[in-house]
Amino acid sequence: MAGSRRLRPFGELEAAIMERLWEAGAQRSVREVVDALQTRRPLAYTTVMTVLDNLFRKGWVTRELDGRAWRYEAAVTRQEYAAALMNDALAGTSDRAGALAKFVEEIDAEDADVLSRALADALAQRRREAGR
């Protein structure tokens, strides 16, 4: 998703829109996204439409024409987006090992356990694939 250029985190409205799309887990019209966002703050239809169009051009959402209206859906999961941000942060340092070590020092014990299990699972999968 990030390609060779730096990944810019979502802005506040982009993040709110992506949250609504992730929560929905299905295509949503601009009107449905506006309605879902209205509980938090009033937003103009055209503002949300513009942000969705920008997210589409950036590759974060897909869209399909339904009559005369576009229906949008997240192109990546929350987890894929978070992983892309973490990978981009690592790519921005010349001391990857140091950055990873500092990250592990600063996460809480529960997250450290999750990370440990994820690493063990990933290594086991790589070993299985290498043994084929």
Automatic annotation (TrEMBL):
Protein's UniProt keywords contain 4Fe-4S: no
Coiled-coil intervals, chain numbering: none
InterPro entries reported in the protein's UniProt record: BlaI_family, WH-like_DNA-bd_sf, WH_DNA-bd_sf
Lineage: superkingdom: Bacteria
Keywords: DNA-binding, Transcription, Transcription regulation
SUPFAM superfamilies registered for this protein in UniProt: Winged helix' DNA-binding domain
Family note: Belongs to the BlaI transcriptional regulatory family.
Name this protein carries in UniProt: BlaI/MecI/CopY family transcriptional regulator
